[in-house]
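Can you please make up a protein's amino acid sequence together with its fold in token form to help me picture the idea?
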Amino acid sequence: MHSHTPHARAIIVGTLFLIGAFAVGFLVMNIVGKSAVFEDSSALERINVAGAPVTVFVADTAEKQVRGLSGVAELPPNHGMLFVFEKDDFYTIWMKDMQFAIDVLWMEESGTIIHIEESLTPSTYPRTFTSEKPARFILELPAGFVREHALSAGSIVTI
């Protein structure tokens, strides 16, 4: 049996507490944080992508749009992130801090798809992507969604 002074015990207990606190913090950030974007059901909406129902998190503020899907581990099937802008413009996306590939749709105010980028991977960062025409909405979906649903420019998204 080891004998420690009260000061040594306090240092050991304090060190163990800090290690435990960091470990718990790390787990919370990596388990909860990565899916937290879809945890708040009040922030979720249902849309229709050329006949396919999709549950989306709506990014309608500058803060949500800058964060996007950064830090999220994956998109569940038939889920996405819908970026809603106040006016038509040339909006750009990039794959900063992304952990998985996505398909991206740019749409006019009417919901008509005007541009598609398929299977963008995190390795494309810092390259940026935009549409050739002004858009009102951007929709990020799991990679393969466009191919699976045979989407093309002119397909309609009902928001």
About this structure: The chain has two domains: 1-39, 40-158.
